[in-house]
Specification:
Length: 544
């Protein structure tokens, strides 16, 4: 292959010297070498992290950031935790990797045992993966293969909520309902059935709790009957809404009704506990706020405290045994359950238990929510504060009474995030209304945060809200000025229409120089200036 086709190099640009050029200056070298080769979701360039300490991260320029969202709600133990560093070093002295089909390893076995001990008695089997998306995929595949193994092969559909987020891999994305993520991939993922999410602030059914009778739960049963239970394998939901609904907590009646509907209609209940689990909301598993026992639980993120990629499902003998007896679970990943990641997650959970961080998440979470409600009282741009434990969503609105979102092209949540970054605070932006509008941010600091550090977080968020309010008010004043008479611009009729346009035929007179050639030869000097200036010039000429 020609060098011209590799990174836009040309033979003359490429030096055969073993020392590569450090920049892409005009003197040759490899173009772009001084740029980042990484790409993620957009073109933005971010500060480069140097190190972390507790709830703080520092960039290479020395700037400090309070990690108010635990990265992506994953760094539950903060950064550079002493016990975590020791556990990592200790395991590295033994072995970092073994392949799951060649060896068992003690850290993985101990971690599985601990996850089972923290689960309802029925949930006693564990399968390790590397991420939350993979955990959801695994939950989906064990559900499907179970029905296949018990000769109910028609049960293949999995119902999820609208809106929802379950992961970025294809199977998990099919369960997701967040328009910007879904739209490009619908030809690959299809459109599995969806039911309204238990999202009372923006009820998809336009009802109000408690008069609604938990209609969102009843919609599941209607959908099962519509598709026929013989075709439905499972229903999947987050116990507390994550990035799509901004920590929306369902009514207490919701999950007990969902569990009954699933059991009555012979379908499996899958819980995506990836974001809400591992102590984040004041219980170890997010679903433990309600007296339910899912068939499969997916967990990740806080499972390792952000120190290593790992995820898992926790399920039951009655699902696993038929699958293993029919030839084995047709699933797996190279790094799944490796000794290093397992040892890291094992220590992370032991720290959560030893330091009573689950209980503290509940206690400090109450204080954090109280402080957020104080800010809501001061800033009308906050429409709702919701969540549980050290997991809070703050939604921005232009009209609190009617819960009206800001225009989508104002990108309010992203604006808030950038302002917060300038104020040394990290928060997590998303949108509540199907990913299209309804800007909100998540606040979810490490579970190790101290009470006085919550105060620091709130001080920085307060400054952020003050600056955000000022910007939004400028936008609103400009919009108000533009539409002061409440008439949308495109529906206005011009006040300077020519007579013929409104039927005044008798006032029409011949226009001098209407002939193109005459107009070109009329001797007018060439026009200069922008559209507004040209309009002013023409007005002055007519006056003369």
């Amino acid at each position: 292959m020609s060098l011209k086709k590799i990174g836009h190099r040309s033979p003359s640009d490429y030096s055969r010297n073993t020392t590569m050029p450090k920049t892409s200056g005009s003197g040759g070298g490899i173009p772009g070498l001084n740029k980042s080769y990484l790409f993620y979701q957009d073109k933005s360039r971010l500060p480069t992290a140097s190190h972390g300490d507790g709830i703080y991260i520092y960039d290479i320029d020395g700037k400090e950031y309070l990690d108010g969202c635990s990265g992506a709600v994953a760094a539950n133990l903060g950064h550079r935790h002493g016990r975590m560093n020791e556990a990592i070093a200790a395991q590295l002295k033994k072995i970092a990797f073994t392949y799951r089909k060649q060896f068992d390893n003690e850290p993985a076995n101990q971690l599985a045992k601990l996850l089972v001990q923290l689960s309802p008695p029925e949930l006693n089997r564990v399968f390790f993966v590397n991420s939350g998306s993979e955990a959801v995929e695994t939950a989906m595949k064990i559900a499907r293969q179970y029905w296949w193994s018990v000769d109910q092969k028609g049960k293949h559909l999995i119902i999820s909520c609208r809106p929802s987020y379950h992961g970025a891999t294809m199977g998990a994305l099919a369960m997701t309902d967040y328009a910007p993520l879904n739209i490009p991939f619908v030809p690959l993922t299809g459109t599995p059935p969806k039911v309204p999410a238990p999202f009372c602030y923006h009820c998809p059914l336009n009802l109000s709790y408690p008069k609604c009778g938990i209609a969102c739960a009843q919609e599941l049963e209607k959908t099962i009957h519509m598709y026929d239970e013989d075709n439905i394998a499972a229903f999947i939901a987050e116990p507390i809404g994550g990035s799509t609904t901004g920590a929306a907590v369902p009514p207490d009646e919701y999950f007990p009704i969902i569990e009954r509907i699933c059991h009555d209609n012979n379908i499996l209940l899958l819980i995506d506990d990836v974001m809400a689990g591992c102590g984040r909301t004041g219980t170890f598993y997010g679903y433990a706020h309600w007296d339910i026992t899912p068939d499969v639980v997916a967990t990740s993120k806080g499972l390792s405290g952000g120190y290593a990629p790992i995820g898992a499902i926790v399920t039951a003998d009655y699902l696993v045994d038929p699958v293993l007896e029919s030839g084995g679970f047709m699933h797996g990943h190279t790094y799944a359950g490796n000794p290093l990641s397992s040892a890291i997650a094992l220590e992370a959970i032991n720290i959560i238990l030893d330091e009573k961080l689950v209980e503290r998440s509940g206690e400090y979470g109450v204080y954090m929510h109280e402080r957020l409600h104080e800010l809501k009282a001061r800033y009308p741009i906050i429409g709702d504060v919701r969540g549980r434990g050290l997991f809070a969503g703050v939604e921005f609105v232009r009209d609190r009474e009617h819960r009206t979102p800001f225009p989508s092209n104002w990108y309010v949540a992203l604006e808030a995030t950038e302002i917060a970054r300038e104020n040394n605070l990290l928060i997590y932006p998303r949108r509540s209304l199907y990913g299209l509008t309804g800007d909100h941010i998540l606040i979810a600091p490490p579970l190790t945060i101290q009470r006085d550090e919550i105060d620091i977080l709130m001080e920085r968020f307060d400054r952020t809200l003050e600056q955000l309010t000022e910007i939004l008010c400028r936008y609103l004043r400009k919009e108000e000025e533009q539409y002061r008479d409440r008439t949308i611009k495109r529906y206005r009729v011009s006040k300077n229409l020519p007579g013929y346009a409104v039927g005044e035929i008798d006032k029409i007179k011949p226009v001098e120089g209407a002939n193109v050639t005459d107009a070109m030869e009329s001797g007018y000097p060439p026009s200069k200036g922008n559209a507004c200036e040209l309009r002013d010039q023409e007005s002055k000429r007519k006056d003369k």
